Automatic annotation (TrEMBL):
Residues 1-55, 214-234 are annotated as: Disordered. InterPro entries: Pol/histidinol_Pase-like. Gene3D superfamilies: Metal-dependent hydrolases. This is Phosphoesterase. The lineage of its organism: Bacteria, Pseudomonadati, Pseudomonadota, Alphaproteobacteria, Caulobacterales. Residues 1-17 have a biased composition (Low complexity).
Length: 466
């Protein structure tokens, strides 16, 4: 079985050198509105600042302060919200781009996903991006019609939306937000299910590309003064907690993410702030980039950042635990990096080399966390599963745990390697690491200090045995 990733639409050589660019694709502004009845009986009227008080420029300024190179403005929808976004939010985005040129800013929204929870909708930067978002939101966002229409909130309608997006001249990207926030327990999913995500990815593999590995609202366990809130939950995951700040779909070795990768799917993870209101102002959020970062290996352009997301050239981290991560798989003179595929002869040894930067400076909490362990995880690729609700891949396992005695340090850089002997089957490998001592991330208790429990994850490299 040979693995072939679907070609990204419009992919081209980058216009400039690539580097690790930190970003956030889930950020709210004052255009995530509340709504009040219209006395004349028309659609409810928006109350700006109802769900988030910040302007788009303010978000961009904080993104710049916290080291982000790119961001996506993703406001909630609502009745006739496409009109609000078109007439008011987009002009403010243009102003923010002019005021904060250091941050590459995408237009998008938190899509009110038919038949599921929410998802980040990222629109390519084109001359008609304003029209393209209105086209999708006005036709498919489940909260758009007034009066509300249950027929807009069905799984088949989401697949119709994805087919439409796939056929657009410049297809957008869709990433499932906080996929297990409504789950009732481990493996007991809520609004977003494994079967749905498979259906999305099958329908439009270069549009529905992945999910938030680490959701936002990570300050949910903090009071405004920074002390623990015993009633608060990281990520606002109140029924099935996050694990090390990550969604159960990502955090469990051999769980849903490994199940998707075990089918050979190019299904990637990200990390976001889901910033609505800062925790010091009574919210449950950090600023964009303050706690979670999604690093994309890309040139400083809208097109290459979006190509990097589609292609899985991505690692994620919390608390600035690391700021660079290079993973290389080599065999027979060929090599592949994060998001790529290495073709090898059956039985060939594969050397995995990991280089990461553990920054010496303090993070926004004034702490200087250190990497305590790095894990190499390997799983088999065995093709499509018979049960589309499957959320496990028993072949996935940690094959090597690296500690300080196992790596070479050169200033802030750590380097380590391992040889996978005689690889005989299609496989994938992925990397994660932590500042803690837990061998596996455990459920996060209410009131946990998010700065004390940090993890990073890289997207996989696939091994195609021929």
């Amino acid at each position: 079985m040979h693995l072939h990733a679907p070609e990204a639409p419009g992919a081209a050589e980058p216009a400039g050198p690539r580097s690790w660019l930190a970003g956030d694709h889930h950020i709210h502004s004052r255009f995530s509105a509340d709504w009040e009845p219209d006395p004349a009986g028309g659609p409810p009227r928006p109350i700006l600042g109802g769900d988030s008080p910040y302007g788009i420029q303010r978000n961009a300024e904080m993104a710049r302060k916290h080291g982000l190179a790119w961001m996506v403005s993703t406001d909630h929808g609502g009745p006739n919200h496409s009109k609000l976004a078109y007439e008011q939010a987009y002009p403010e985005l243009l102003e923010a781009r002019r005021a904060v040129p250091e941050v590459i800013q995408f237009y998008g929204m938190e899509f009110d996903t038919p038949g599921a929870d929410h998802s980040s909708l990222i629109v390519p930067h084109t001359h008609d991006e304003r029209e393209r978002l209105r086209e999708v939101e006005s036709r498919f966002a489940k909260r758009e019609p007034h009066p509300a229409d249950p027929a807009w909130d069905t799984e088949p309608r989401m697949l119709e939306a994805l087919r439409h997006m796939k056929d657009m001249p410049a297809p957008p990207v869709v990433i499932a937000n906080h996929p297990s926030r409504s789950a009732k327990g481990v493996g007991v999913y809520g609004l977003t299910t494994p079967r749905e995500l498979r259906d999305w990815n099958d329908t439009a593999p270069q549009v529905a590309i992945g999910m938030e590995g680490a959701p936002g609202h990570q300050a949910g366990g903090l009071k405004p003064d920074g002390t623990p809130d015993p009633e608060g939950a990281r990520g606002s995951y109140r029924n099935a907690p996050t694990m090390g700040g990550f969604d159960q779909m990502t955090a469990r070795v051999g769980g849903f993410w490994d199940s998707m990768l075990g089918e050979g799917r190019r299904w990637w993870i990200t990390a976001t702030s889901d910033s609505h209101r800062h925790y010091t102002e009574g919210g449950s959020d950090f600023w964009p980039g303050e706690y979670a970062k999604t690093y994309v290996w890309a040139a400083r352009s809208h097109d290459d950042i979006l190509d990097g997301l589609r292609s899985g050239r991505v690692f994620v981290t919390t608390g600035d635990l690391i700021s660079e991560l290079d993973v290389t798989a080599e065999a027979g003179g060929s090599r592949a990096q994060i998001g790529e595929t290495l073709a090898i002869s059956r039985g060939r040894d594969v050397r995995v080399t990991i280089r990461l930067k553990d920054p010496a400076g303090a993070n926004p909490a004034g702490r200087t966390p250190e990497v305590a362990r790095v894990d190499l995880i390997v799983g088999k690729v065995q093709g499509p599963v018979a049960d589309r609700a499957a959320d496990s891949n028993p072949t996935a396992q940690v094959v090597r745990r690296f500690g300080p005695a196992d790596w070479r340090r050169d200033g802030e850089m750590l380097a380590m390697s391992f040889v996978l002997k005689g690889v005989a089957e299609d496989s994938y490998l992925r990397i994660r690491g932590t500042n803690g001592a837990e061998l596996e991330p455990t459920p996060d208790p209410p009131g946990e200090d998010p700065w004390s429990d940090l993890w990073f994850y890289a997207n996989p490299i696939f091994l195609d045995v021929r």
